[in-house]
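Title: Request for sanity check on Glycosyl hydrolase prediction

Description:
We are preparing a figure and want to confirm that the structure record we downloaded matches what your pipeline produces today. Could someone re-run it with the sequence below and paste the raw structure tokens into this thread? We only need the token string, no images.
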Amino acid sequence: MQKMTLSCTCLAVCVLLVSIVGCSTKEKDTLPSNSSTNPESPSPASETPIATTSTDPLVSDDPVQVQPVSIVSPQITLSDTNHLKNPNATKEAKILYNYIRDIYGDYIISGQQESTWKGTPDFEINYIKDNTGRLPAIRGLDYINEDFSGVTQRAIAWWELGGIVSICWHWGTPPDGVGYESSKGKIDLEEALTEGSDLYNGMIAQMDRVAEELKVLQEAGVPVLWRPFHEFDGAWFWWGKGGGENFKKLWRLMYDRYTNVHGLNNLIWVLGYSGEVKDGWYPGDEYVDIAGADNYSEGTQLSKYDKVAAIVGTEMPIAYHENGPIPNPDDMIKDGAKWSWFLTWHTMHIMEQNTAEYLNTVFNHDYVLTLDELPKFK
């Protein structure tokens, strides 16, 4: 199932940042098998320090000549009716959330996590564009290594381009930890959750620092798929090592502080289970807008989808918020794995767990929404 006709005009929004490849028709392809296999990975590959700011273009000057086929955008009427848990949600957040709800089950939104140490933060984005002629709809960012202003500015640029912003945070252990290795440390969560303790004060200071960046995004009109404390039930990060009850208190603490103290109304709260999807970790419906799971093995991951649905119900959108191999769109349709989006992890996961030919077919599949198929949210 392929997209039928080409519309270059839908890519016009990209001209400020993107060199557009030529337009041509494309013969129908069958989905090639995803040749790369990999056992389930419980946590992302080791992170590398943030690269310096790069002025490289979003797309290389000499991309592979692919032939994307037509853009058949879903006909969705955007609405700012509030279905988010935050009664004071911004108009942009409400519109984006309603769009995700409206396409849920009929399409899957494409996404890609960036790396920042391969010469340019657009390394993966360039690779997808060069091999598919398309851009992912969602850009995944990470406040890891205190790359605060860099992440914030790239998020604003992606929203201005017409895309959707997802942000996670490999948060180093409080009170002053930084980076991926520190995020795998351990603290006394009961002490950290005791108001007035030194550990509590240090944790709140780190939390508030990121809140300031999210305020910049709110002022710029950028809604954020905010995915803190990811893979909590895997218990390989500090925020999951204190057990389910302490995690729920931690999630609610951040939700309350960000929403009621800092007035962050641009956040769509995404609860990111690991591939294990354990019971006993759900903070409650009033604190979660979207839930999901992740996995780094092949297949539609229907069992993970069903586990999340058993916890949050069938009305809340469910996201495949981290993946290695991208699930086969035809198999997702057949299996009923109605993920609202996929977000492929960076570097080896996009390049070695998915062939270039497979990416080309996925990103030009009717079921998969790319950046050029998104409505004008602004």
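Thanks, this matches our download. The two ends are 30 Å apart (CA to CA).
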